């Protein structure tokens, strides 16, 4: 479907470094990474807003690297939605259809069907300035889907929304994807969005895609230490973990916070920080100078009167090893035929 081959681009403070990636037809692909990693720049390169300094972009086997944005049949929804403020919701959704010179009856049918599916039929006469953030997002997605794009690019689509609206839109996005069967690349720094929506995920750090894979595999056992660090896991180096009594054969050992449990016996530790969330609690532990992040329940913290300075015992239920370089998928993608 979409294939990027060794894309490089320097733009202001952002740099894309030798990015190779494929996205399958009908897939909801998550591009996950911290702010400033170049995710938006990559979307803009795919959309044709910026031309890559090096590399090729293929869509359905066709080289579109030199094509202007309007010739790519790619829909891009930026973070600020970019709705036309002087046009009504109806006019915003129908804008791309009018440019394609569809007749009025067909345009009306497409707009009303999309508005019904996205729950905005009652807003068609309104101007964007009168809408809530969630309503504006629905309009932007409807406008993008109206032209039946080959691929939909979504840049942090839920970042400006309150928690309740965001949760509902995530559920709705899953339904819309099933209904319209579009191909999407969804950029986010939110683990929740990735876990809720993604089929595969690419993790982007410092302008480079460090790992691509099945969502469960990447989150459970990332193969790259940079990815594991971004996901908030404990990264331990061989010479620092003697007191933990772990047997390993790699330069790095990775321990997920949820795999560190506070127990009645085990390795002695001092609590340095406790952060209570709605249902869970983040705890920073000091084991002979080694800092460990643990994830437990609020009930566990309150029941055992755990606070900063408390002496506790911990057990490590599981750990895995990771490498310190990007996966080889980047080269394998472009070795294959672009028509595959």
Note the main attributes of this structure.
single chain; 340 residues; Rossmann fold; OB fold (Dihydrolipoamide Acetyltransferase, E2P); 2 domains; six-stranded mixed beta sheet; five-stranded antiparallel beta sheet; 10 helices
Order of helices and strands: EEEHEEEHHHEHEHEEHHEEEEEEHEEH
Number of strands: 18
* Overall tally of domains: 2
What does the largest sheet look like? Answer: 6 strands, mixed
Q: Under CATH, the topology of the largest domain is which?
A: Rossmann fold
Return residue spans where pLDDT drops below 50 for at least 5 consecutive residues.
none
Cα end-to-end separation: 8 Å
How are the elements arranged and paired?
Elements: E1 2-11, E2 14-23, E3 28-32, H1 39-47, E4 54-59, E5 62-63, E6 74-77, H2 89-99, H3 104-117, H4 133-146, E7 151-155, H5 163-180, E8 184-188, H6 191-197, E9 200-205, E10 208-214, H7 215-220, H8 225-230, E11 234-237, E12 252-255, E13 260-263, E14 267-276, E15 280-287, E16 290-297, H9 298-303, E17 311-316, E18 320-322, H10 329-335
Parallel strand pairs: 3-8, 3-9, 6-7, 7-8
Antiparallel strand pairs: 1-2, 1-4, 4-5, 9-10, 11-12, 12-18, 13-17, 14-15, 14-17, 15-16
Helix pairs in contact: 2-3, 2-4, 3-4
């Amino acid at each position: 479907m979409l294939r990027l081959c060794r894309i490089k681009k320097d733009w202001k403070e952002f740099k894309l470094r030798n990015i190779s990636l494929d996205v399958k037809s009908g897939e909801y692909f998550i591009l996950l990474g911290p702010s400033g990693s170049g995710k938006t720049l990559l979307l803009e390169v795919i959309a044709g807003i910026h031309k890559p300094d090096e590399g090729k972009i293929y869509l359905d086997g066709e080289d579109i690297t030199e094509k202007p944005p309007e010739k790519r049949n790619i829909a891009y929804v930026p973070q600020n939605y970019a709705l036309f403020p002087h046009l009504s919701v109806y006019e915003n959704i129908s804008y791309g259809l009018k440019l394609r010179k569809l007749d009025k009856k067909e345009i009306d049918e497409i707009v009303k069907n999309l508005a019904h599916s996205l729950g905005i039929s009652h807003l068609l006469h309104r101007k964007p300035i009168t809408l809530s953030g969630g309503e504006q997002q629905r309009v932007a997605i409807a406008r993008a889907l109206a032209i039946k794009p080959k691929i939909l690019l979504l840049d942090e689509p839920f970042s400006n929304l309150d928690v309740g609206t965001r949760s509902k839109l995530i559920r709705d996005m899953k339904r819309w994807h099933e209904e319209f069967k579009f191909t999407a690349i969804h950029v986010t720094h939110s683990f929740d969005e990735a876990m809720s929506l993604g089929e595969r995920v690419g993790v982007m750090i410092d302008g480079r895609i460090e790992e691509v894979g099945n969502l469960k595999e990447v989150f459970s056992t990332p193969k790259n230490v940079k990815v594991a660090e971004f996901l908030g896991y404990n990264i331990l180096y061989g010479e620092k973990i003697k007191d933990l009594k772990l047997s390993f054969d790699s330069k790095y050992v990775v321990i997920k916070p949820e795999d560190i449990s506070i127990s009645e016996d085990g390795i002695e530790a001092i609590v340095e920080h406790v952060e209570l969330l709605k249902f869970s609690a983040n705890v920073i532990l000091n084991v002979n100078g080694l800092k460990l992040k643990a994830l437990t329940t609020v009930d566990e913290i309150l029941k055992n009167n755990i606070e900063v300075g408390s002496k506790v015992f911990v057990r490590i239920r599981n750990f895995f090893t990771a490498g310190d370089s990007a996966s080889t998928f980047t080269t394998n993608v472009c070795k294959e035929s672009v028509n595959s």
